Amino acid sequence: MNLEYSEEYVAFRAEVREFLQGWPLTGDEAQLPVHEQEIRFRRRGIERGYVYRNFPRAYGGSEQTPDVLRERIIREEYAEASAPGDSAGQGPSMLAPTLLELGTEAQRERFIAPTLAGEISWCQGYSEPGAGSDLASLQTRAELQGDEWVINGHKIWTTTAHEADFMFGLFRTEPQAPKHAGISYLLVDMKAPGIEIRPLREMTGASMFNEVFFDNVRTPAENIVGKRGEGWQVSRATLKHERNLIGDPNFMRRAYLSLLQLARDTTRNGRPAIEDPSIRQELAQIEGFFMSLEYTGARLLTATARNEEAKVILPMMTMKLYGTDLRQRITRLALDLLENRSLIAPTEEEGSHGAPEGRPGTWTADYMSAIAISIAGGASNIQRNIIGERALGLPRDLRTPK
Amino acid sequence: MDFGISEEQELLQETVRGFVTNECPATHLREVFDGESGHDPELWAGMLEMGLGGLTLSEDFGGAGLDILDLALVSEVLGEGAVPSPFFGHTVAGLALAWGGSDEQKASWLPRLASGDVVATAALAEAENRWQPEQWSLETDKGTLTGSKQFVTSADLADLLVVGISGGDLALVERSADGVDVTPVEGLDRTRRVAEVNFDSASCEILPGGNRVANRVRDAALILLAADSLGAAWNLIQMTIDYTGTRQQFGTNLTQFQAVKHQIANMAADIEQTRALCWYAAYAQDQLPDDAPHAAAVAKAHITDRAMEAARDAFELHGGIGFTWECDVQMWFKRCMFNRTVLGTPEIQRERSAALAGW
Ligand SMILES: Cc1cc2nc3c(=O)[nH]c(=O)nc-3n(C[C@H](O)[C@H](O)[C@H](O)COP(=O)(O)OP(=O)(O)OC[C@H]3O[C@@H](n4cnc5c(N)ncnc54)[C@H](O)[C@@H]3O)c2cc1C
């Protein structure tokens, strides 16, 4: 064990930090729309080899030799500078790696680079009203007619469907096959005729997810990733990337530090709340969970660097459950600190992605969202099944015979 | 940057684990647990043979010259086996001597501690839960010590006591000295027996560096307890998996029921995630002096608390038999209770860690 970075890495960190002085943009560039500024700065990061390191240059990445330590340094420094690096959107973080792994050459060429650049945005069309945790029971049909898939059915909880250019989704293409074997992974243009998007309003008041209805929607036959009937396996690759995203310790660090700040800024009995014995107890307990998660992150990183991932199956599989539980603890204490300020409804902005940190409304919305993310991407009970069955060797649930 | 244990450290754990599995299986542990003395001389001799008498002591004194991280890894395995032995007190006393003793004191005692010719222990607690160095109150007078210490582990076996005294100082007292009286107490954790020790003008020697290192010694002891709980909790999880995997109700194994499976998954998630905290806190003692006290307090509070929760679940999942004296769960359950309270409950450690974090 050695937590010091060698000279090479210390120098690398300094280099990254210096580059990040360039954010936010200045001069004429500062007048551009934010999205355009982000695209520009991201492009510079790619040129430097800091952004999209695992993607080939041909597809808009920076094609660097894998080095988990450099990647960690980059993540930390970008987070510190709040600069646009690897995008956390569903396209760059889920679809692009899936195409890289399993897509055809034509799909990679067409989609990966613009997706990474932020020019094509994506939504994930998996869940349906009748298919949530039991995703493989999904019913939205896609039939091959000539050189097109014709889609009919209904997706739900589709985050950002209203803004997305494309959907990557799961559709039943082989109705006769057993349920897992009858699904294909298709890419669909959200502007295609026959798609109707209805926003859903969340309890925070914001509208991040939607229902998507398909009425004879057509997508070209070549927009299938993997083979017919192999969509389930393809989606497992995507889901792996989604869980990594949710368990990201950098994200937890920000929430934890923000909670400490709230405890300092809030007054209790005329003193900062952080001096209140019961608040200190709860904060210190949260710190125990937080440090466990943070150093488990470091442990997983080292295991990856050493090619010893088989030794960390259990900590890896428990990360999502543990992390989402912790996020709920953090936001619950924030409510206790806010007291009556948590009785004010969050604004729509406060309930949306990229909400301004530290505002009462953002905390209140986050208290609710923290529970939502323990459902998204495989609900906690499903995580417990996975931990029990795959990591601890406990038996699978009994299935009710059809 | 490398956050993981080395091959040598894995091997160290495997070696100790092999020894514990062979020499102290639950059946044997039970005999010692129910026995009069709570001590097994052969088991302790085997541990000494493996070098556990002086893991962190310098090689010049016959020790193994290892780090606190290595010590934590060994402590974890001893917790897995709930191994009854003077290891805890002996190790803490050894660290106090090594860090705070004069050259003469070290040369005189450390080789015998490493070999186990002398068994040592640390006498820290005083009445009313006073575990911390700043709370110690025993006074010395012309080289003699008077007062009382509580919950001293393996005191009846010890030849040498390192005693916490006023001013956060540390004194050495030989058990055979006049005025030293050891009264065994019926302790809860029968794998680590405790006693009250009274000193009545007993002759003593001050460790010159005592008050400089007392906090550091306490922090190392916190790590030992946290690591022991991590190991004990894992063993309880394994016992629960084994038990519920064979216990039949409603025509099937209990693990077939999702409520049981989920409870076990929660235990495993909770405990496995603390392993990295344990490593970090131990490593901090070796390499990061600025964060070491804080990390030790967080690790001790968090890990012993989570382990107690896992122990509680293990007990519950064993059903009625889990409440019996006969069931092995109690041996680890009480081990977890001991670790949680000794040197200050989670509440005390959390208040300490909060203060150390500058909150
Ligand atoms: C904020 C948010 C964003 C989302 N974004 C997307 C998206 O972009 N695209 C997309 O396709 N989907 C998305 N989802 C949907 C998400 O994947 C599903 O909500 C999730 O898989 C659970 O399905 P469900 O809502 O139908 O709940 P259900 O499956 O009905 O589950 C309800 C409850 O029952 C429990 N449960 C279910 N089955 C079992 C079982 N076998 N054993 C024990 N307990 C069980 C679950 O743990 C859960 O608590 C999103 C969800 C949320 C909350």
Describe this structure in words.
The complex is a heterodimer of chains A (402) and B (359). Chain A has 402 residues and is of the alpha+beta class. Chain A folds into three domains: 75 residues, no CATH class; 108 residues, Beta Barrel (Butyryl-CoA Dehydrogenase, subunit A, domain 2); 145 residues, Butyryl-CoA Dehydrogenase, subunit A, domain 3 (Up-down Bundle), CATH 1.20.140. In chain A, 46% of the residues lie in helices and 14% in strands. In chain A, a hairpin with a 2-residue loop joins strand 9 and strand 10. In chain A, helix 4 runs antiparallel to helix 5 and helix 7 runs parallel beside helix 9. Chain A is globular and about 70 Å long. The model of chain A has no long low-confidence stretch (mean pLDDT 93). Chain B is built from twelve helices and nine strands. With 359 residues, chain B is α+β, with helices and mostly antiparallel strands. The longest helix of chain B is centred in the middle third of the chain and has 37 residues. In chain B, helix 5 packs antiparallel against helix 6. The mean pLDDT of chain B is 97. In chain B, the strands form two sheets. In chain B, strands 1, 2, 3, 4, 5, 6 and 7 form a seven-stranded mixed β-sheet that branches. A two-stranded antiparallel sheet of chain B has the order 8-9. Chain B is globular, with a radius of gyration of 20 Å. Chain B is 53% helix and 14% strand. Chain B has three domains: 109 residues, Butyryl-Coa Dehydrogenase, subunit A, domain 1 (Orthogonal Bundle); 91 residues, Butyryl-CoA Dehydrogenase, subunit A, domain 2; 145 residues, Butyryl-CoA Dehydrogenase, subunit A, domain 3 (Up-down Bundle), CATH 1.20.140.10. The chains are: A alpha+beta (402), B alpha+beta (359). At the A-B interface, helix 8, helix 9 and helix 11 of A face helix 8, helix 9, helix 10 and helix 12 of B. The structure holds flavin-adenine dinucleotide. Flavin-adenine dinucleotide binds next to strand 1, strand 3 and helix 11 of chain A.
